[in-house]
Amino acid sequence: MTNFFLQALSEVGSFSVMGLIILGVLFGIIGGSIPGFTVTMAILVVFPFTFAMDPVSGVSLMVGVFVGGYSGGIVSGVMLGIPGTPSSITTVYDGYPMAQKGEPGRALGIGVMSSFLGTIISVAVLVFFGPLIASFSMNFRPWEITALIIFALTLVAGLSNGALLKGLLAAALGLLITTVGYDRNSNLRFDFDLPALSSGFEMLPVMIGVFAFSQLLGNIEKLRDGDGNGKGVDTNVSIPYRQIMKDMAGQKLNTLRSSLIGSLIGALPGTGGTVANFVSYDQAKKFSRHPETFGTGTPSGIVASEASNSAVAGGAFVPTLALGIPGDLPMAIMMGVLILHGITPGPMMFEQNPVLVGAIYASLLIGAVVMVLCNLLLVRWFAKISLIPQQILVPVVLMLCAIGAYALNNNLFDIWVLFIFGVIGYLLWKAGVPLTPLILGVVLGNNLERQLFRALELDPNWLTFLTRPLSALFLVLAVASVVFSLYQDRKLKRLKPATSQ
């Protein structure tokens, strides 16, 4: 392990790759600082630029955006009371009140240090547990992989912001989208006599359309309603380093607990930072000696929120690399980068591409250090980014989305795909249907169909899925996750009003 890690570190430590990591972190922080832009949209904008890069450079750039994006959400959360990303919602509960008390620099500093420590702890989880999971999953056959993907989809649908049925329907729609085009037996399906549909829908235009384009349409609607501009706030902040060190010294247990929660939840396919955010904040409040201070500007709340959502970064890589199951939506895009370069995530990746795995570890560590330095040195300028008017932001991002979709195949049809799925995503969003299950259904659909066909070709008896222990276990867990999600949704609904007081 030491040899390939040192080789990976030498590649990542090159001038060009280090520059890409720094650029990625900066863009991620900027993207996370803009309300409504989100980590996912930042990654989607950068994704097309990786096409011409080698695997190590492309993945390092994406890891930089990933690390920077999860920390960037604290800026608008503290300065405006608006979470820059969904995974920094609970940061607002204590970060904004602390800023209103005249301590925005303290709140930002605590958040940045918590993000750094959360990322470091999550990398340790990835290093120690990633290979173990990969070794265990070497025994997986098509039946186990099929059942695992079904389990992952039920987790995604179940954790859908309190909309279980809509989440399940969205995941099913995502799977349906992947059936367009030729199947394994060269049968043409759902092409509607359009030659462009014979090869199916490209993943990138669908993802940009459903998630980014639809969200930008929502921002345009807010502009129309007069709710699109930031509030006037003082962005001239300074960081009280000594006070922050004192605050963090008293938050060791909270930091460790929140980071582990973020890592573990991040390792669950399709969960991500938002769930980790609420769960860790809830646990921090329950373990606190003064729970009544939460929501009034306590450092404990900021630490719990930022350590957990940043720890999701390392945890989310575990199922992506070891099992080929993306931990969340940004990980689905990261998986697309690997596939684009001919690398298939899964158990064999640790044996066939150990240097690339080591490069991911190294990029996460270097990205965490760069993130701290960038945030602490440039925080007053990042704070001003959160005030960019939506009238300027929306057209620019729309243009970048269209360029990214077209650059994939130099195909004008992909821009139409982006537009059509953007409208569909917007209508689903207006109807309260969660979009994450739909996207991950698109990402996992082809693999699910391929593994299901292989399983039935080897043994056409459907009962084999129940007679093989691991396959049966995953199917039982799939059912249990749907049942448990009902309980979890009710708990989160009770938690949100309680923590917002």
From TrEMBL:
- Transmembrane portions of the chain: 20-47, 59-82, 107-130, 142-159, 165-182, 194-217, 321-343, 355-382, 388-408, 415-445, 465-487
Listed name of the protein: Tripartite tricarboxylate transporter permease
- The question of whether Transmembrane helix is a record keyword is answered with yes
Q: Which UniProt keywords apply?
A: Membrane, Transmembrane, Transmembrane helix
Identify the InterPro entries for this entry: DUF112_TM
Instruction: Reply yes or no: does the keyword Transit peptide apply.
Output: no
Question: Which stretches make up the DUF112 domain?
Answer: 20-440
Which Pfam families does the annotation name?
TctA (PF01970)
Q: Which PANTHER family match?
A: TRICARBOXYLIC TRANSPORT PROTEIN (PTHR35342:SF5)
The record lists the organism as Vreelandella lionensis
